[in-house]
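Students often ask why inverse folding is considered easier than folding. One informal answer: many sequences map to the same fold, so there is more than one right answer. In these notes we will look at a single instance of the problem. The structure comes first.
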């Protein structure tokens, strides 16, 4: 957890993921000027595209920008929540760091166009901003065997009962507000 002065705590904090960086973030329409921008440390090494690297380099000159690594406690919370929502198999290591970093900054918003990141945030009560796509329903994923129709909470290679493949399904829950 990063300690901040009182003044800085009053400002809005935005956690930026790789999909947000790809949209030439920071975008003034989304982020107000005196807000805080947080990029999880892991993105520095995980971002591969030339374009995103260039954007990241430009952003690094921004006085508002900080790099941060999430606490182990928040990472565990995120991974446990992702297991029960079924998002875990759709999330990269960087994705889990984005959401966990948001937990370390109370009141922070996550900026992401990623479906699984948004879904996970809705389960954890983290506010989301997006550039294009925003989910309207919360999903709880499960896997069903195409042979015997057995249901599983987690993704596994093949059905332990009959050896057939599994297909992903979900139950929907509307997000309030
Ligand atoms: Zn089966």
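Output (designed amino acids):
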């Amino acid at each position: 957890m990063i300690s901040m002065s009182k003044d800085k705590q009053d400002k809005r904090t935005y956690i930026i993921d790789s999909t947000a960086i790809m949209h030439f973030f920071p975008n003034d329409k989304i982020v107000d000027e005196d807000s805080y921008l947080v990029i999880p440390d892991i993105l520095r090494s995980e971002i591969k595209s030339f374009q995103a690297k260039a954007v990241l380099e430009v952003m690094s000159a921004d006085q508002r920008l900080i790099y941060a690594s999430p606490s182990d406690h928040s990472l565990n919370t995120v991974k446990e929540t992702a297991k029960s929502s079924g998002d875990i198999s759709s999330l990269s290591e960087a994705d889990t760091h984005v959401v966990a970093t948001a937990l370390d900054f109370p009141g922070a918003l996550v900026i992401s166009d990623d479906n699984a990141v948004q879904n996970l945030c809705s389960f954890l009560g983290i506010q989301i901003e997006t550039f294009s796509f925003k989910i309207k329903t919360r999903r709880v994923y499960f896997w069903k065997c195409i042979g015997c129709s057995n249901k599983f909470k987690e993704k596994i290679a093949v059905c332990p009962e009959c050896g057939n493949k599994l297909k992903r399904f979900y139950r929907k829950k509307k997000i309030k507000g």
